[in-house]
């Protein structure tokens, strides 16, 4: 996803000279072509993230479209008040791009993890929250973010694998039905879409035909689709690389619990109100320790479905 | 002589505005009278003598921009903006009441002439840096002015912004520091001593100059020569008095949030009226 962002921001600036690329002292090597070709659109404002967000708001209110890019915790929780006031309260056209979200920096520990960013970003009025599933969807998300006038938060992982599914048009607020199903659904976001696709194959063998939903927009969430699924499905599971508190599962639950025709069983899978204390350069190894692997997902779906 | 007369006119405005601010805040049972009084002279000088702005075109892209980073002083800004014609003066009567656009901290999405929503300390300077950088790349020659409080400089974000401003040679950025030396709970020197703001900003690569923040002749000397030096941002450290204009409010920490009782209100209005009359008499001469 990181490389895809670098390519996407280059293309976006090529098309629209108002796009500004601000970084907090990361990515200089990957961005070298950008720096060479768009020197006046590039600002490395140092590891001073509070200031970066305010500056971005100033740029936006001067007609620019600033994309602020750095490691996720430092551009979300560290600068939450700047995002709340300078960006969202001012309704400034700023795009916050966090790279290495969730536990992507698997060897670096909790200082570099973000298992709370969806929760806090969702809570801000005016904010759109995007969580692409693979490199191609990163590009689609960036194009959509440039077009959208107002604050957008984009949650990126690092080196994610491309996924193979039918796409159709990317639209903010409209989830992608990656696979049609019958009476169960797995709703996933980010790299968990890949995990869900692996689980789906195994569940099919057990005669559970699951919808797989790629919830690339976490706010506004696709209420229409969720309501439809809640009427059709016996069981719905959400899975996300995030805390079970306040994330996608909470957003889905907020819709389902207030929908009178909802008749589904429901479970949220994520990090269960804990700091991730495992280290590995392969995040999928860590997922196994916290119940977020495809095997865990299959087991949970069978258990919920056959309850 | 002409200049002195001009400054006397500004002094009259500032005194009349103090009275409007006082009455507006007291009517609404609002707060922050002393913080607003501290900056009235600075705002009057900026809006009547310095800023290239047209209230008819508040979004003109070539306008000078002013960011009130210490948003709690906004009652002063509202009175100045209304008197300049950014919105009707009758709007001031709605201050801090349901349905009003004017609250206890300024909202840029609703108030014409307010460039940034502020209220939490340490935000406005960064936004002003964004304006100044955007002007540089858009080749717009206008200036960006920002006003921060001395207590606000406790916030680390101010110093992040200070570093970026000098690194990017923002000579189109003028920071005015309302140095009234009084925080909420007492004097700055006893709570978190800033030592010398001048030394600090100079160490951060700025031009720094100190003035009397209530003396328009002092303002004249500085503003006529801005920026003090090319390729550097400028900070004007304005030595001010919190509560300036009403003697029993000056330099007294409780007036940060206190509202006057009837007797105090009459006394305050009396002092301001007397000053207004005195200035008018001087002008007639």
CATH superfamily of the largest domain in chain A: Thiamin diphosphate (ThDP)-binding fold, Pyr/PP domains
CATH architecture of the largest domain in chain A: 3-Layer(aba) Sandwich
What percent of residues of chain B are in strands?
5-15%
The DSSP helix count of chain B reads 9
Number of strands of chain B: 5
Oligomer: heterodimer
How are the strands of the largest sheet of chain A arranged?
Answer: 2-1-3-4-6-5-10
Kindly report the CATH topology of the largest domain in chain A.
Answer: Rossmann fold
Q: What about the largest sheet of chain B?
A: 5 strands, parallel
Query: What fraction of residues of chain A sit in β-strands?
Result: 15-25%
Number of domains of chain A: 2
Which two protein chains have the largest interface (Cβ within 8 Å of the partner's Cβ), and how many residues from each? A-B, 29 and 32 residues
**pLDDT averaged residue by residue of chain B:** 95
Rounded mean pLDDT of chain A is 97
The N- and C-terminal alpha carbons of chain A lie at a distance of 38 Å
What is the count of DSSP helices of chain A, taking H or I runs of 4+ residues? Answer: 12
Number of separate structural domains of chain B: 1
CATH A-level architecture of chain B: 3-Layer(aba) Sandwich
What is the structure about, briefly put?
Chain A is α/β, with parallel strands linked by helices and 307 residues long. In chain A, 38% of the residues lie in helices and 20% in strands. Chain A has a seven-stranded mixed β-sheet, with helices on both faces. Chain A has a five-stranded mixed β-sheet with strand order 7-9-8-11-12, with helices on both faces.
Provide a descriptive summary of the structure in words.
The complex is a heterodimer of chains A (307) and B (285). Chain A is built from 12 helices and 12 strands. Chain A is of the alpha/beta class and 307 residues long. Chain A has a 7-stranded mixed beta sheet with strand order 2-1-3-4-6-5-10, sandwiched between helices. A 5-stranded mixed beta sheet of chain A has the order 7-9-8-11-12, with helices on both faces. Chain A is globular, with a radius of gyration of 19 Å. Chain A starts with a helix and ends with a helix. Chain B has one domain: Rossmann fold, CATH 3.40.50.970. Chain B has helices at 2-27, 33-50, 74-84, 124-138, 156-167, 188-191, 197-203, 216-223, 262-284; strands at residues 65-68, 144-149, 173-179, 207-212, 234-239. Chain B has a 5-stranded parallel beta sheet with strand order 1-2-3-5-4, sandwiched between helices. With 285 residues, chain B is of the alpha/beta class. At the A-B interface, helix 3 and helix 5 of A face helix 4 and helix 5 of B.
């Amino acid at each position: 996803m990181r490389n895809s962002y670098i390519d996407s921001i280059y293309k976006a600036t090529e098309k629209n000279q108002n796009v500004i690329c601000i970084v907090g002292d990361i990515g200089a090597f990957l961005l070298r072509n950008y720096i060479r070709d768009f020197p006046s659109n590039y600002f490395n404002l140092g590891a001073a993230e509070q200031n970066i967000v305010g500056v971005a708001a100033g740029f936006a209110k001067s007609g620019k479209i600033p994309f602020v890019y750095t490691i996720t915790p430092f551009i979300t929780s560290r600068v939450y008040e700047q995002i709340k006031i300078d960006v969202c309260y001012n309704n400034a056209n700023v795009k916050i791009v966090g790279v290495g979200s969730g536990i992507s920096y698997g060897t670096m520990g909790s200082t570099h993890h973000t298992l709370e960013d969806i929760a806090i970003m969702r809570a801000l009025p005016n904010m759109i929250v995007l969580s692409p599933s693979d490199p191609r969807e990163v590009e689609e998300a960036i194009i959509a973010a440039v077009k959208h006038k107002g604050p957008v938060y984009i949650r990126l992982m690092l080196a994610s694998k491309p996924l193979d599914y039918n796409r159709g048009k990317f639209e903010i607020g409209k989830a992608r039905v990656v696979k049609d199903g019958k009476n169960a659904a797995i709703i996933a976001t980010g790299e968990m879409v890949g995990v869900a696709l692996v689980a789906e194959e195994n569940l099919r063998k057990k005669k559970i035909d699951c919808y797989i939903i790629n919830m690339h927009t976490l706010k506004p969430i696709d209420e229409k689709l969720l309501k439809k699924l809640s009427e059709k499905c016996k069981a719905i599971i959400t899975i996300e690389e995030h805390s079970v508190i306040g994330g996608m599962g909470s957003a889905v639950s907020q819709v389902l619990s207030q929908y009178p025709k909802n008749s589904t069983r429901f479970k949220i899978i994520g990090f269960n109100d804990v700091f991730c204390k495992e280290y590995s350069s392969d995040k999928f190894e860590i997922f196994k320790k916290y119940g977020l692997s495809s095997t865990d997902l299959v087991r949970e779906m069978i258990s919920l479905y056959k309850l | 002589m002409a200049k002195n007369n001009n400054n006397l006119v500004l002094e009259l405005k500032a005194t009349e505005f103090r009275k409007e601010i006082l009455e507006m805040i007291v009517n609404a049972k609002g707060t922050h009278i002393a913080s607003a009084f501290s900056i009235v002279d600075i705002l009057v000088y900026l809006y009547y003598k310095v800023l290239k702005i047209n209230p008819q075109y508040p979004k003109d892209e070539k306008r000078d921009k002013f960011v009130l980073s210490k948003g709690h002083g906004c009652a002063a800004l509202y009175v100045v903006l209304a008197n300049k014609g950014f919105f009707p003066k009758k709007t001031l009567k709605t201050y801090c009441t349901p349905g009003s656009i004017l609250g206890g901290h300024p909202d840029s999405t609703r108030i014409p002439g307010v460039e940034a929503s502020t209220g939490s300390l340490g935000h406005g300077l960064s936004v002003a840096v964004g304006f100044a950088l955007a002007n540089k790349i858009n080749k717009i020659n206008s200036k960006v002015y920002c006003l921060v409080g001395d207590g606000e400089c406790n916030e680390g974000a101010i110093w992040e912004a200070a570093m970026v401003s000098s690194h990017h040679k923002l000579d189109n950025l003028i920071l005015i520091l309302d140095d009234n030396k009084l925080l909420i709970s007492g004097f700055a020197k006893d709570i978190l001593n800033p030592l010398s703001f001048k030394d600090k900003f100079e160490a951060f690569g700025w031009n720094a100059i100190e003035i009397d923040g209530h003396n328009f002749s002092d303002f004249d000397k500085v503003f006529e020569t801005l920026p003090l030096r090319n390729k550097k941002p400028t900070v004007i450290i304005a030595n001010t008095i919190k509560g300036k204009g009403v003697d029993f409010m000056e330099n007294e920490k409780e007036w940060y949030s206190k509202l006057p009782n009837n007797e105090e209100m009459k006394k305050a209005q009396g002092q301001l009226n007397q000053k207004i009359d005195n200035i008018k008499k001087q002008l007639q001469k």
